[in-house]
Amino acid sequence: MRLSRKLRLLSAALAPMLALTACSGGSGGGGTGASANEQVKIKVWSWDGTVEGAVAGFQAANPNIKVEVVNAGSSQDEYKALDNAIQAGSGVPDLVMFEYFAVPYFAIPGKLADLGEFGAGKLQQDYVPAAWSDVTVGGKVYALPSDYGPSAMFYNEATLKKAGVDKPPATWDEYYEAAKKVRALGGDHYIAQDTGDIFFLLSLIWQAGGRPFKVDGTKVHIDFTDAGTTKAVAFWQKMLDEGLINTKITGWSDDWNRALNDGSLATQTMGGWLTSTLPERAPKASGDFKVALMPQWEPGTKVGAANGGSSFGIPAAAEHKEAAYKFLEYFAHGKGLSSRVEAGAFVPNLSVLDDKAFRDKESTYFGGQKVGAVLAEASEIVGSGWQYPPFFEWARSIYGDLASPFYTTGKGSLAEILEQWRQRCIQYGNEQGFEVS
């Protein structure tokens, strides 16, 4: 889930962390675990509350392993703290939560243990391919997926019908026509908001077939001129140019909450984790919202993307790797998985997504809709081959800085912003020891 990760990472804070010449705590550091009877205590860094709920069951089945779950703050705070611990050679946790795009940053310089050494490879068949790909670097798996964000369109059915849109837009052309009708309602009515959400824009590019980032070890190539990227960017530019998108409301703000509650924002194209967020943010809209697949670029096709998601990996310098992996497999794949799903986690495990009970469960908030079935399908159609550069945690914060003037003044274009972003990423990546072009 990206809900707790909206804070930006300052460049100055990340610069020393990304340097490949810094101490990496290589794969030979740290202990491997404990014997079957030795009492050990593992420390887990996580912002996912459902993981803590799995502790009691695990400890009951494994009385020699005690688990301490610590919230290390936002993702950016956690990554900084982990790098500091690795460089200091002390205080390294045994298990750490990572957004998918952060896995290569820690894996490439050897800061994560290869989970294949603990038998993780046997679990691959239980995960949607795109999620497994997100935790695989150079053919090795460095984390297990724990939650997932297949992109879907959450739409306020009441608002769309009020605007004369009787069914959810199935294509982006239909979405454009619906946007004009929603805007015609006047006032603050818009089909969506955007103030520079790079994850949303990248999900459009991803779905359209664009693959702007290509990563091969420490070699990174960035190109925002391929056909898919150009198509997606041009479409969203048109939406902005015609005033069909609210550029005043920022996601996760109080104004955003208000607009979701009163129906003035008709849709949200976000990760599947929004199913647990909307009821908290927009309780007054209960029964009005429904979920559909992302609108398609071509009629009759089914292609998706992802927006957010998290995993857990074991630092190479962790003291109790074997015990940590045992807990990881328990809550990410084993008996602890069901308790996390019941607590609201949307997981990429096929054993859950293919389960009839999961697909047939009706959601009160979403007007009795079988939301699980929609999101399970959204997970299955995520386009393959997407990559993030290993310094994306830094890059996403810089994109916001570059995009802000465009969204506040309307001067410039998305294509120009992306080119500026590309140049900054090339400069920064090369300064950090990557080979970026």
Automatic annotation (TrEMBL):
It holds the Pfam family SBP_bac_1. InterPro entries: Bact_solute-bd_prot1, SBP. Keywords: Signal. SUPFAM superfamilies: Periplasmic binding protein-like II (SSF53850). Residues 1-21 form the signal peptide. It comes from [Actinomadura] parvosata subsp. kistnae. This is Sugar ABC transporter substrate-binding protein.
